[in-house]
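[job 0412] stage=fold_complex status=start
inputs:
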Amino acid sequence: MRIVVAAALLLFATPATAEIEIRAYDLPTRSGAHDVAASPQPNGPVWYTAQRQGKLGKLDPNTGKVDQIPLGEGSAPHGVIIGPDGAPWITDGGQNAIVRVDPSTHEVKRFPLPEERGYTNLNTAAFDSRGILWFTGQNGIYGRLDPRSGQVTVWDAPRGRGPYGIASAPDGSVYYASLAGSHIVRIDVDSGHAIPIEPPTKDQGARRVWSDSKGQIWVSEWNSGNVSRFDPKTNAWRTWKLPGDRPRTYAVYVDEKDIVWLSEWSANAMVRFDPQTETFQSFPSDRSSANVRQILGRAGEVWAPESGADRLIVYRTK
Amino acid sequence: MVEMGSARALSQGDAVRGARVFQRCYACHSVDPAERHLQGPNLYGVVGRRAGTVDGYEYSDAMLAAGRAGMVWDEQTLDAYLMDAEETIVGTKMGPMRLRESDRADVIAYLKKAVAQ
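[job 0412] stage=fold_complex status=done
writing structure:
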C-alpha cells in the first residue's frame, strides 16, 4: 500500500472557455495505467487498469493514496468501467475474461470467455440501460455478459479484426468503433446483431466512441486525426480535424455539459472541443510520451490516465 | 533490466504453438504480405529485417533510430522486444506486450516459418 501525494496544480482560463483546474496524481512506477473509471459519487475512488502489472488500481483523490489489487495469473487489464452495482468491471485481455472487483472487499470475480473462442484481445466494455455488459475484442469479436446469470455470449464482428472502444447512448443503444476496420457499429441490444456504419473519411481508424446527451455519437479517428460526430436520427456526419501537425486522435469522452474531450498523441496533449463554438483548446502534458489511451469523467471532472508517465490527471471544470 | 530467453528455450520454439501465441499480435499485425493496413507493421519476413524498414509504415522515432543504429530483428532482438517492448525500445508505438519465455520462443518460430512456407 503506497501513499503518494498529488503533484502539480495548474490553472487554465481562456475568455471563451470555462476555467479548468488540472491536478496530477502519481501512480506506482511502471503501472502502465491504461483506462480509468471514477466512481460516480463526488470525491469517490478513481479506478484504473495497471495493465503492465496485472492489477486494478484504486486512487483516493482526497489523499492521493493508491492501492493496487492483483487480478490473477496472466492478467493484463485493458478497460474498466463502473457498473450499475457501483463496482469496477474490467476487460482483461491477459486472462481473456471479464473481471469484477468488489469495491469494498476487493474480491475478484472472473467471467471467462468461452474457451472455444480462443484469445480475443478483450478491449473495452459498456453497460446498456438494462444492466447488460457489452464488450469488444480486437481480434474480431463483440459480446455481452449478463451479470445476473453470468452468461457470456460472443459474436463474430461483421468485418473481422478491429473492435475497440464501446459506449452506450441515452436511448439504450450501444455503439463500438473498429480501429482496424475503420467504421463504427451499432449493436441491436435485443438481437445482438451488429450494423456497420461508415464514417465519411476513408481509412480513418475509428478508435473510440462516446455519446453526448442528445444521443449523437462522437468518434476519435486515430489515422485521420479527426473527431467526427454521427447523428443516428438523420444518419448525418460532421467532421473536424484536430489542430497541429499530423494529429493522432486516440480517446474521446463527452462530459455532462456536452463538451468533447480528446487525447492527441502527436502533440502529447489533451484537447477540449466545444461543439457550440467549434473551437479547440489544447492542454499539453508536462511529461513526454504521456500516451493517454482513454478518458472518462464524473460531474465536474474529466480523468485521463497517462500510461507513459504513470499518472492520473484530472481536469476539474467549474 | 531485460532478462533474455535462453538459447535452449529459443531453439525449442514450436511454430504450431506459436500460431496460437500470434493471436495476441493478430489485432495489429499480419504475416500475410498483402495485409498492410493494420496498426502495426506487416511481419512477413521480419526475421532478418532491419528494424523500422517496412515500406509505407509510419514508425515511431524510436524504432527508426533503432534501425538506423543497425538493429536487425533476429531471435535475440525479437526475444528481448517481446519480453518487454516498451523497455527494449523506449518510445515504441507498440502497446504493452510482455510474453513469457516459452511463448516468445514459439511465436518467433512461427514468424520464421511464416516466410519459409
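[job 0412] summary: The mean pLDDT of chain A is 94.
[job 0412] exit 0
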